[in-house]
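Q: What would this chain look like folded?
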Amino acid sequence: MYRLIRIAGLALMVGLTQLSQATAQTAPQGAVLRQLSLQQAIDRALADNPNLAIAEAERDIAGSYSKAASGPLWPRLDLQTGYVRSNDPVFVFGTKLRQGRFAPEDFDLQELNNPAAIDDWSTAFGLRWSLLDPQIWTGRSSARNQAEAANWAAVRTREATVLVTRSLYYRAQTATAQLEAADASLEAAEATLDSFRKRHERGLLTDADLLQAEAELAAARARQSALASSRIDALQDLGLHLGLGSDTLPVPKDVLAPPESIRQSEFNPEERADLRALSAAADAASDAKSQATMAYIPAIDLLARYATHGSDPWSFDGDNWTVGLQLRWNVFSGFGRSAEGQRASLEKRIATIEYEQALRDAKSELDQAERAVRSAQLQVEASGAASAAAEAGQQLMRLRFDEGLATATDLLQAEARATSMRQAAINALANYHMAVARLEFVRSQSN
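A: My prediction, written as structure tokens:
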């Protein structure tokens, strides 16, 4: 279970780093827009996310099992009270003795064989205490380790919830930025077509030039429509994750920030929450194996009993007590203990293998995450420079076109290049934030 949680968090992160060109200027009819900062989105996800709620409930369940496993170490005290009326000879004889009412005439053979019915109101306290039971000790240790594993699994699920929230928030930010860029491109395409029509009327451009500008405008409108729809999808996905109603769309209040220097920190994979969970699970499996072995060892119980007996509910005619030790030893269980031992041994092996594999994976994941951040930083720098150059080139090309030094095709190509580079720069910045979020998730430490 704990390995699945770790993998699921990473898989969600990897999937969300492949950004779709998302988003929309207007919300669906009747939808309520709710602005949220990234921190507000994280706080809401931690409060209302169902996956986290399930993980925390499983943690509490495991904690309850751990407390229950300690119960047999305490003395067990039982209270028993009841009423019996019978003329059974043995019952009558014994009851009179217990009530302290046995008299010489009770030895009469006729009285012994055919006694009159007698009432017995009894109250008894019974105590049982396992003084030596290795199975209980190892069972308690196993339950404690299982509770610890569930606790660390909940911590990792909390970290994964933050990761997914950041990823969905960045996706919504990216979608909004892409749509704004598409709006600017559409305005530029409309202005270009208007300029081309005027020149076409004066005979300065051909029909082919005008048709090409109209095609570029149609493509810009289609791109804006697709991005508008994708943005709604991104906002709805974020809202679903945050537990908002279908009629409420969260709108990112923050914008994609420029890259910052990454804080370097020591990373010990053994201190990560999912690795701690796997380690505790392996310890629990080891304890379970020991518990199966301890089934061959005898157990010793302390027994004590105090009882009162009376002929009516309000009298205590006699009392008695019993104290003793009991040895319990299951000599043969139909090979059940050996089968249980084999099962426990295999589960211990599986848990150990999972932990060792996860430990190796964690080191590899860190290397990959650090490389991804470095690569994303370079992409942000390169795409930013390319976008700035393409924007400047577009403006220069328009001046040259207005002066008759560039063709219509040159201008349209420059505008298309600027649009493409602008979108690439937005994606690069979003991918950088995704990579940073994944790096922080991979190298998180739980002390």
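The beta strands are 32-36, 76-86, 118-132, 248-252, 299-310, 318-328.
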